[in-house]
Amino acid sequence: MNCFSAKIQSLFKKAFLKSKFWTRQLAKILKENKIWAVLFFTAFIIGLIFFSFWFFKISPKNLLERILPVSFEDTKNEEIKTKQSESPVPEIYQRKIDGMVVDSKEKINPPLFAVMIENITEARPLSGLSKANLVYEAITEAGITRFLAFYTSDKDVSEIGPVRSARPYFVDWASEYGAMYA
């Protein structure tokens, strides 16, 4: 081992004592002592890896969890996961129009009604807009906007208004949902 440390020390002396010509000296040393140079650079690279782990506070376990899609805890608890997957999971149904949870698959895509509602200050207060499942707001003319409110057939809305006339693009939007348009 003393021979090895003496060789490494001589490599350092030869390479770094002459600061002007250290690159030339290093190239010369690499030609003369290939095995020792390979060992030196291998040790240097390993040292850089360990330094980067220490400097960036990364543990090898965290690094592997970032790289691999499965974490170590997942492999340890594989039996628990298989038991959980065997237990029945209740299905959750959501309406497509607003994402609300419904109790059956038939209620996922209910019939819709679309209503055009005025949005100027003279027409206020608006009725039924807060009970809409989905609302579009778009400019009609002169900076005045109107609302296109979508309601499901199971909604109990006593009053909607003030109802206004249609615009072609509102009719197109309502037809995308297959809604009846008022």
Please, could you describe this protein's structure?
By secondary structure, this protein is α+β, with helices and mostly antiparallel strands. Helices cover 43% and strands 17% of the residues. It is built from seven helices and six strands; from the N terminus they run H-H-H-H-H-H-E-E-E-E-E-H-E. The strands form two sheets. Strands 4-5-3-6 form a four-stranded mixed sheet, covered by helices on one side. Strands 1-2 form a two-stranded antiparallel ribbon. Strand 4 and strand 5 form a beta hairpin. Helix 1 packs antiparallel against helix 2 and helix 2 crosses helix 3. The longest helix has 22 residues. It is elongated.
Primary descriptors:
single chain; 182 residues; four-stranded mixed beta sheet; two-stranded antiparallel sheet; 7 helices
Map the helices and strands.
Layout: H1 2-16, H2 22-32, H3 34-55, H4 60-67, H5 72-76, H6 78-86, E1 93-94, E2 101-102, E3 112-119, E4 134-141, E5 144-152, H7 168-176, E6 180-181
Parallel strand pairs: 3-6
Antiparallel strand pairs: 1-2, 3-5, 4-5
Helix pairs in contact: 1-2, 2-3
